[in-house]
Amino acid sequence: MTTTQLLKTFTTTALAALIALTVACGYSSKMTAPVAGTAPTIAQLAPDTATAGGAAFVLTVNGTNFGTKAVVNWNGVAQTANTTYVSGSQLTVAVPASAIATSGTVQITVTNPATAGTGIYGTGATLAVTSSAMDFTIN
To answer: Is the N or C terminus of the chain more exposed, i.e. has fewer CB atoms within 10 Å?
Structure first.
């Protein structure tokens, strides 16, 4: 056998052994897909209205299942920097005057973000879950 043939044989054998070990270990069967996270719910907004052209204010969102990293969404836009976690049933969000400059209805939702899995196989990962919307009125 020539050196080239010997090298090809060795490479093919090594590749086959690696594939067999990977399949035999069942590595792919141990991976777990992320599951749905806990869905937050909104029970009340305080206040639930504002006057168009009014001053900035703090909106309190009361409900259930708020994660420590939950975010209030203002018309679908995450208020990441303005949301404060108070408890599993209350969040606050600083609303700038520019957000209530004109009258209309704003959809308020809360999102519990996705969490990464832990351990060697990434178990325990969850998907992001967003609550149903509640209307906030700007008069």
So the answer is: N
User: How far is the C-alpha of 124 from the C-alpha of 58, rounded, in Å?
Assistant: 34
- DSSP 8-state assignment for residue 2: -
- Neighbouring C-beta atoms of residue 136, cutoff 10 Å: 22
Residue 86 CB contacts under 8 Å (≥ 6 apart), including other chains: 92
pLDDT digits (tens, 9 = 90+) for 60-118: 999 999 999 999 999 999 999 999 999 999 999 999 999 999 999 999 999 999 988 87
Within a 13 Å sphere around the CA of 87, how many CA atoms are in the beta-carbon half? 5
Q: Per residue in 123-132, pLDDT tens?
A: 778 899 999 9
Written as one letter, the residue type at 81 is A
Residues 6 or more apart whose Cβ sits within 8 Å of residue 134: 42, 45, 107, 108, 109
pTM value?
Answer: 0.75
Tokens of 92: 């606050």
111 and 128 Cβ atoms separated by less than 8 Å: yes
Structure tokens, 91: 């969040």
